[in-house]
Amino acid sequence: MTNWNDDRLDKRDEEVKEGFARLEAQIREGVAESDKRFARLEGQIMANRREATEGLAGVRSEMNQGFAELRSEMNLGFAQMHSAYATLTRTLLVGAIGIIAALIGVAGALLT
């Protein structure tokens, strides 16, 4: 106790100290509760991040597989087109050779 002239001041001093002690305890409890909540929130964020990352990896894998299938189908289509053009070219070449041979024959017949 301090050297007060009035006992009521000593009582008030004790009440103020007790009030501050209660307030300090409440603040500590609040901070501890906030820390728990933030830790729980951080855990949820990390779990959601892992799920999102795994989900993106799955989507990326599906996209790569889809592109590989598309590339394969396009290569098959180009191969079929090339084969069709090669056949057309051979057919036209045989026809052109036939026409040239016929023209040579006509020209030879006209010259003789």
Distance between the termini: 148 Å
In helices, the fraction of residues equals over 70%
Shape label: rod-shaped
As a whole number of angstroms, the C-alpha radius of gyration is: 47 Å
Poorly predicted runs are none
Q: Count the E strands.
A: 0
What is the mean predicted local confidence, pLDDT?
Answer: 89
| SSE order | H
Q: Report the biggest beta sheet as strand number plus sense, adding barrel if it closes.
A: none
Assembly state of the chains shown: single chain
Helical run tally: 1
In what range is the share of β-strand residues?
Answer: under 5%
Secondary structural class: mainly alpha
Describe the fold and architecture:
With 112 residues, this protein is mostly helical. The protein is built from one helix and no strands. The radius of gyration is 47 Å and the shape is rod-shaped. The N and C termini lie far apart (148 Å). 0% of the residues are buried. The model has no long low-confidence stretch (mean pLDDT 89).
